[in-house]
Description:
Elements: E1 13-14, H1 17-26, H2 37-46, H3 52-63, H4 76-86, E2 89-90
Antiparallel strand pairs: 1-2
Helix pairs in contact: 1-4, 2-3, 3-4
Amino acid sequence: xxxxxxxxxxxxxxxxxxxxxxxxxxxxxxxxxxxxxxxxxxxxxxxxxxxxxxxxxxxxxxxxxxxxxxxxxxxxxxxxxxxxxxxxxxx
Length: 91
């Protein structure tokens, strides 16, 4: 008798805008309301990025409108939009 083996692919569910907002806010290491490169690197690492340092630089370039090296509260929506385009999923 032949047994059939079923193979399942894991389901990858994308993060929501609200989830990403909370993840980035939680990585504000000193609570000043701004995300530094180091904070962003940690957040992208948490999201599973293979190149968290590069993603942090790209995020600063994409979302940091005043080019001061930080993502401020007003720029957080742009950061989340960038992360959504990157396609991070819940494993």
